[in-house]
Specification:
Layout lengths: L7 E10 L14 E10 L8 E7 L2 E6 L8 E4 L4 E5 L9
Antiparallel strand pairs: 1-2, 2-6, 3-4, 4-5, 5-6
């Protein structure tokens, strides 16, 4: 998804949809969780393998292009920066 040393660490609190949504017949809204720890990617072309959702409130959510799981982070349209959640990806030494 992303090579080592291609991003910088940042902290900010952002509500991101859960990877698995709970069924709630009373609500049309998405279930979210607050994430705080991210890899900041300045250029979306830096990714090795990432997919983007449709735009929702000025953001596109990031998904793994191989398995289509996600969202693993988000792309902020106003700044063109991508934020990859440390909590939602597996880190391996290459």
């Amino acid at each position: 998804m992303l090579k080592a040393k291609e991003a910088s660490y940042c902290e900010q609190e952002v509500n991101v949809p859960l990877m698995v949504q709970k069924k709630d017949s009373k609500s049309d809204s998405l279930n979210t969780e607050t994430l705080r720890h991210f890899w900041l990617v300045e250029d979306m072309m830096t990714f090795e393998n990432i997919g983007f959702s449709h735009t929702v409130d000025g953001r596109k959510f990031l998904v793994c292009a191989d398995c289509e799981r996600g969202p693993v982070g988000y792309h902020e349209l106003s700044t063109k920066r991508c934020y990859l959640s440390l909590k939602r990806v597996v880190h391996v030494d290459a």
